[in-house]
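Reply to thread "Modeling small-molecule complexes from scratch"

Following up on the discussion above, here's a worked example others can learn from. I took a protein sequence and the SMILES for adenosine-5'-diphosphate and predicted the complex. Inputs first:
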Amino acid sequence: MIRPIALTEPVRAALSKRVDAHKFDHGHALVLGGGPGRGGAGRLAARAALRIGAGLVTLAVPPVAVAENAARLDAVMLAPVPDGYSLRGMLADPRISAVALGPGLGLPRAREMVPAALWAKRPVVLDADALSAFEEDTELLFGQLRPDCVLTPHMGEFARLFPDLAAAIRAGGDAIAGRADAVAAAAARSGAVVLLKGAQTIVATPDGDLAVNDATGAQASPWLATAGAGDVLAGMIAGLLARGFAPVDAACAGVWLHAEAGRSLGPGLIAEDLPEALPGVFRALGI
Ligand SMILES: NC(=O)C1=CN([C@@H]2O[C@H](COP(=O)(O)OP(=O)(O)OC[C@H]3O[C@@H](n4cnc5c(N)ncnc54)[C@H](O)[C@@H]3O)[C@@H](O)[C@H]2O)[C@@H](O)CC1
Ligand SMILES: Nc1ncnc2c1ncn2[C@@H]1O[C@H](COP(=O)(O)OP(=O)(O)O)[C@@H](O)[C@H]1O
């Protein structure tokens, strides 16, 4: 049974901020960024995590990328994190309540940083290079995953981690039922929440919850097919995890708000616009 993703009243209520709360009540998201000249994707994710309401967001980059990022960031904080050892040290701070990595990370840095991020047993979003880096050894990745990890592949990344399931999707003519079965199987196999992106985005949990956000027909948002839109989604989900949302709720609410931001902007949108559209989306929801 596949349920449609909707923004329920409890989720809407959880998105608002209590009048007497302070920033640490809303969590601290850590986003890993890539090297010089590859920083855009991480910055998009970090900005999205902050806009969706995480109290603090830090972008952790290789020391050689600090100058580039310092010139581009204000509200998002910046930390030099050279290697996995250094990341583990940062994650000793229990106030860091969620981690996102993959966008723009590069495959070698992803291979080093993913185990360090998972070691800390904090909710984690794995996207882009954090998924592709394990194409040759998926069992190494799956052996470290937990139900509070959210994997956010597009179809190309999904095929790298689950080639047989991607083949089954293709064999079924890319029909929604076949995609849903494949994502459910991927969640069961990996032990994590799996979110397969696309015009119809599917979310599955290891224990069998299955949901779809259908951005076709009246809900179409075709201008989301633009570079960096997925990096923004990863950041939104990380921000919600940092705020304490359950993994499946963070994934579903993130997809819903991302699509709504896309619809509110319409033709001409680029990835940078999506986090900036969230205040308008929240206003329309009465948040
Ligand atoms: N502004 C930026 O800095 C951006 C950086 N990006 C980063 O660039 C790196 C490479 O990511 P890419 O996803 O571009 O490239 P990848 O090579 O990882 O994946 C793209 C490949 O997958 C295939 N594919 C199959 N189905 C697909 C689907 N539904 N959607 C997308 N691709 C599909 C494509 O044909 C292509 O061959 C990542 O680190 C990513 O985060 C991108 O996110 C784009 C924006
Ligand atoms: N035609 C479409 N209609 C609605 N949403 C789309 C469409 N194409 C892509 N998207 C959404 O846009 C985002 C694209 O992410 P992704 O493919 O990872 O791009 P990138 O790697 O460039 O960030 C996903 O959230 C996906 O669901």
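What I'd highlight from this example: The chain has 13 helices and ten strands. The CA atoms of residues 63 and 80 lie 5 Å apart. Questions welcome below.
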